[in-house]
Amino acid sequence: MTPGARRVLDSASELFYERGITAVGVDLIAQHSGVTKRTLYNRFGSKETLVATYLLARDRRWRAHVADALETPDLSPGERVTVPFRALREWMRGNPRGCAFINALAELPDPEHPGHQVAADQQQWLLELFTSLATDAGLRTPDDLAHQLLCLYEGALAVQVPATTRSSAETVGDAAAVLVRAAAPSNP
Hints:
The chain has 2 domains: 1-45, Arc Repressor Mutant, subunit A; 48-182, Tetracycline Repressor, domain 2 (Orthogonal Bundle). The N and C termini lie far apart (55 Å). By secondary structure, the protein is mostly helical. Helix 7 crosses helix 8 (114-136), helix 8 crosses helix 9 and helix 9 (142-158) packs antiparallel against helix 10. The model has no long low-confidence stretch (mean pLDDT 92). Helix content is 72%, strand content 0%. The chain has 10 helices and no strands.
């Protein structure tokens, strides 16, 4: 990526996350990044492509964050299932406006929009990760459990109450641990 393209993407990422995708136009992104609109279009082609690129970059960072958390030594297979919740707690400290993917899905309802597809793919990846971790842990009904965990995860992102002493990610992390223990084969 050229330095100009990097500035455009960095500026767009900040603006899209802070102000919303539909509220931010290419004029503002060009001004904020110090490039011309022509440079923006030469590098990305369209706002839609820039939105998808922004979401893909966030997705890569999030997946790397989860992968790093899964490398924690001495985790039992059951504990590994709840690692995305621990990673989410850490992630939310630096992302107070909630989930960029939920926000994108709310702002981009058209499934043909490339940004919508990136956000939907991120949710599918997380569902598949939960399913894989639950299967590896030998838990009962891993597909059902994965769906329950995804709903908890997404709920934590949708419900952030700043006035409380516990984060929503911490609360759903505890709930996820209860679900994982209940799905253990030794439980009736």
